[in-house]
């Protein structure tokens, strides 16, 4: 079942089409990547999902029914890129206040705060002020305040900004745990390597439109260029009948492109016939970063990948 469905959403500001007829579905328990360059419409989309903006056209379905901001925002946790903590307020008091705003009793809030503070090694922070924290420490606190009330849908905008590798791994592990325990995570970032590692499904938007929609595996397969890395001490001289061409070689690793109409088995068969001793044979798939750049710079055409 989908926790969230956007149906033909549109949002205009004066003459700018910030979101232009975007539809997408987010499955329950999924880690979903919402990607796009600056000004693509991601923030506007998120603000409609969280009830900050109302769409000019289209409909939002949340947890099986039409989205009602007055009720449903209680089941959403939103960590914006621009942090929203009160700098002069003590951390413990602020966390307790925000938890109660989300509907937790004081007793429930204190129990959950203690659990999260221990997990994130924040026990000694209670009487500190936010303005005394480093960017990374503030990030950890913001994450805790976002997930403290056990929301059904968690929206994280650049959650790793300012974090060192240790704390990045800590947050990443918690994202996996939250999804494992039934929460759905929408993850927005510019760092494609994190998307590849974390997300099940991604949508790429550009200039207010959806231009890519599918699982990471499906998208990589769709944009592959028949490139392979072959480990061999020496490659034979190629003639016109060879099923591949050599793109480059370094330290017995040879990058080849298979010609149209041929398969990896054809390449292996050809090399074995030539007496080549093959140590490794691996397909080279494009990175999400390469695909992102290619699509954003290249085409406005939307793609919809079918499940396999």
Characterise the protein shown here.
33% of the residues lie in helices and 29% in strands. It has helices at 42-49, 69-72, 91-101, 106-119, 135-147, 165-180, 192-198, 216-222, 264-273, 288-298; strands spanning 2-13, 16-27, 31-35, 57-62, 65-66, 76-79, 153-157, 184-188, 201-206, 209-215, 227-232, 244-250, 253-258, 278-284. The longest helix is centred in the middle third of the chain and has 16 residues, at 165-180. The model is unreliable at 301-308 (pLDDT under 50). The strands form three sheets. It has a six-stranded mixed beta sheet. A four-stranded antiparallel beta sheet has the order 2-1-4-5, covered by helices on one side. Helix 3 packs across helix 4 (106-119). The chain starts with a strand and ends in a 10-residue tail after the last helix. The chain has 308 residues and is an alpha/beta fold. The chain has two domains: 2-220, 3-Layer(aba) Sandwich (Rossmann fold); 225-284. The chain has ten helices and 14 strands.
Can you summarize this structure?
This protein has 308 residues and is of the alpha/beta class. The chain has two domains: 2-220, P-loop containing nucleotide triphosphate hydrolases (Rossmann fold), CATH 3.40.50; 225-284.
The named CATH superfamily of the largest domain: P-loop containing nucleotide triphosphate hydrolases
Q: Which regions contain 5 or more consecutive residues with pLDDT less than 50?
A: 301-308
**What is the chain-wise order of helices and strands?**
EEEHEEHEHHHEHEHEEHEEEHEH
- For this structure, the CATH topology of the largest domain is Rossmann fold
Shape: elongated
Structural class: alpha/beta
Helix share of residues? 25-40%
Kindly give the count of domains: 2
Using the 3D structure, state the CATH architecture of the largest domain: 3-Layer(aba) Sandwich
Secondary structure tally, helices:
10
Biggest sheet, strands in spatial order?
Answer: 6-7-8-3-9-10
Radius of gyration: 24 Å
Distance between the ends = 18 Å
Average the pLDDT over all residues and give the rounded result.
Answer: 90
CATH C-level name of the largest domain = Alpha Beta
Largest sheet: 6 strands, mixed
Number of strands: 14
């Amino acid at each position: 079942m989908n926790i969230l469905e956007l149906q033909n959403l549109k949002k205009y500001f004066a003459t700018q089409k910030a979101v232009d007829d975007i539809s997408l579905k987010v499955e329950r328990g999924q880690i979903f990547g919402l990607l796009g360059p600056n000004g693509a419409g991601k923030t506007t989309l998120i603000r409609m999902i969280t009830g900050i903006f109302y769409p000019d056209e289209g409909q939002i379905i949340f947890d099986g029914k039409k989205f009602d901001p007055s009720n449903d925002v209680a089941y959403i946790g939103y960590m914006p890129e621009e942090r929203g903590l009160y700098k002069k307020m003590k951390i413990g008091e602020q966390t307790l206040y925000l938890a109660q705003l989300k509907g937790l009793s004081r007793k429930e809030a204190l129990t959950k705060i203690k659990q999260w503070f221990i997990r994130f090694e924040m026990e000694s922070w209670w009487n500190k002020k936010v303005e005394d924290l480093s960017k990374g420490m503030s990030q950890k606190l913001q994450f805790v305040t976002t997930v403290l009330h056990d929301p059904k849908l968690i929206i994280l905008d650049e959650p790793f900004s300012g974090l060192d590798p240790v704390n990045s791994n800590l947050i990443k592990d918690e994202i996996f745990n939250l999804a494992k325990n039934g929460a759905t995570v929408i993850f927005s970032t510019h760092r494609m390597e994190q998307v590849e590692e974390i997300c099940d499904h991604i949508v790429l938007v550009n200039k207010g439109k959806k231009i890519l929609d599918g699982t990471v595996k499906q998208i990589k397969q769709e944009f592959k260029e028949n490139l392979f890395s072959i480990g061999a001490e020496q490659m034979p001289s190629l003639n016109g009948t060879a099923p591949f061409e050599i793109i480059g070689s370094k330290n017995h690793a040879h990058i080849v492109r298979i010609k149209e109409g041929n398969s990896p088995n054809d390449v292996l068969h050809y090399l074995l016939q030539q007496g080549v001793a093959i140590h490794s044979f691996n397909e080279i798939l494009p990175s999400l970063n390469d695909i992102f750049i290619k699509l954003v710079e290249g085409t406005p055409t939307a793609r919809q990948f079918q499940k396999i």
